[in-house]
Specification:
homopentamer; mainly beta; OB fold (Dihydrolipoamide Acetyltransferase, E2P); five-stranded antiparallel beta sheet; 0% helix
């Protein structure tokens, strides 16, 4: 999976069928602030409530459809986890 | 998913079976005009009416076939959304 | 899909089962002569008669098996279209 | 498959359904210490007990779900082997 | 498919279920000796007897499992052909 940071929300009113109600986020790939990737941001669906600035784990390709949604939905990236933030003092 | 801009139409009269009538677009990957990607343009099928200059969200790989079309069609990229344009004053 | 130019034929007498009779082409990715990609050439199966020098559209990944062939064939790239050449005067 | 070295564990308390109990590792792609890749680390599931510093073989994409787990789990990378360490004197 | 050269064997005693007895090769992507790729080597399964130095065609992704093996095996790359060597005088 890819590790990245949520940088933006994105909206598309005109879209393929079956995508209504899904949240689309712009994710900047990169392990942490010190290792910002030069790779292009990607767009991923989010169902677990990730917000701007969260570090997230993103599954790509056809396994992205392997959530409880209809397998026929044409998405290729989904946020599967929000990385735990170290607590104060760590 | 990938974010890009439609730059061209492309036609192929000689093609594999099952692709007749589909619209093929050339898409330049890149988040916006300020961050033009050096990645090569890709070809994607469009069924929602994207035009040249539109910023679009493209699903790649086998989920691209997960639209209401026949799953046997050999395509690996489809436009799933046209990104909303900010209205005047934004 | 990827856009590229056929640069060579390639033959493999020793191969996995189920691949006998298929034509394998070496394809240089790149939109046109002015934008030759630095990406490595790829190998794709061709069933529509593409020749050296033809600009072709190539589908990659598991959708490449989504042609009328046996889905169990281990290929990950197929030529799905030959791009139309502009006629004289264009 | 990709060859890499385990560099870190990663935890995500908030995650998609079906992922509870899985171990997530951060893997630095690269053949060996002399050929460290400039590619970004990836996140992979591990079920065979790989530890930090182990050189591992990672399967990516939908075959990563082809283990005895539920095929509906949205993961796209899994450690499938720990590369044998040469014994003393080698 | 990818074209590359076999550079090494690799062994992993500790591995996921279902992989016992398979041969794993390290493959350097690259069209020929003159165009050595800067891409990282990949690991592929071989069932057709490729040896070190052989130029091979490698199928990646889920079609790699589309050989007569159990589709549940978590591999994402397989050697599907050994490129014919030009005979003397060619």
């Amino acid at each position: 999976m890819l590790l990245g940071t949520v940088i933006e929300n994105i909206w598309a009113t005109r879209k393929e069928d079956g995508l209504t109600g899904l949240t689309f986020l712009v994710i900047q790939p990169g392990v942490d602030q010190k290792h910002i990737s030069s790779e292009m941001p990607i767009i991923a669906v989010d169902r677990i409530g990730a917000g701007i600035g969260d570090r997230v784990i993103v599954t790509q390709g056809s396994p992205a459809g392997a959530v409880q949604m209809d397998l026929k939905i044409p998405i290729d990236a989904i946020v599967i986890g929000i990385v735990d933030t170290p607590t104060n003092g760590t």
